[in-house]
Amino acid sequence: MTKRAESKYKINRRLGVNLWGRAKSPIAKREYGPGQHGQRRKNKPTDFGIQLMAKQKLKGYYGNIGEKQFRKYYDEAVRRKGDTSENLIELLERRLDAVVYRMKFAVTPFASRQFVNHGHVTVNGKRVNIPSYLVKDGDIVEVKEKSKGLTAVLDAAQSGERDVPEYIQVDHRQMKGSFVRAPKLSDVPYPVQMEPNLVVEFYSR
To answer: Which residue range or ranges hold the Small ribosomal subunit protein uS4 N-terminal domain (predicted)?
Structure first.
């Protein structure tokens, strides 16, 4: 296992959950946290600790988004009309790397971000290599012609680990799909319980 993969799965052990629902996660074998003090008895978390954990889960799920960028999503969610926690989930799901992951063009959010970074994806026929690019309703996301035969893409598309959600349409023969509509929290197929309301509480303290 590479250092990158080890670091990625360390998030699972630190949070005590199988964040992406993958069989490879070490949480299935060791439920305690990483490091030499990982097996120490945990104290009952405070309200702040619970809110912080909710934020770390959500940030970690989308490929460990940086704090500065994540805070921008929160600020934008507050600015928009409607429920702030639902707005936050919508913004995260509109990220191009998240859409590529949902379309099963990549096996993990980390792989999806790298896939976009390396210029393998187009949006409405134009190459976009910015993982945080926000996809709009009806946008067509496609794997570039030269990249459609990559083993990693084919393996991800054929994986039975997860299904494509209803707010995404995809044709795996053409490696092409569209973002149909903004999802609600209940629409998003998280393997673990996400609590964006606690994230809102964390930032609004």
So the answer is: 3-93
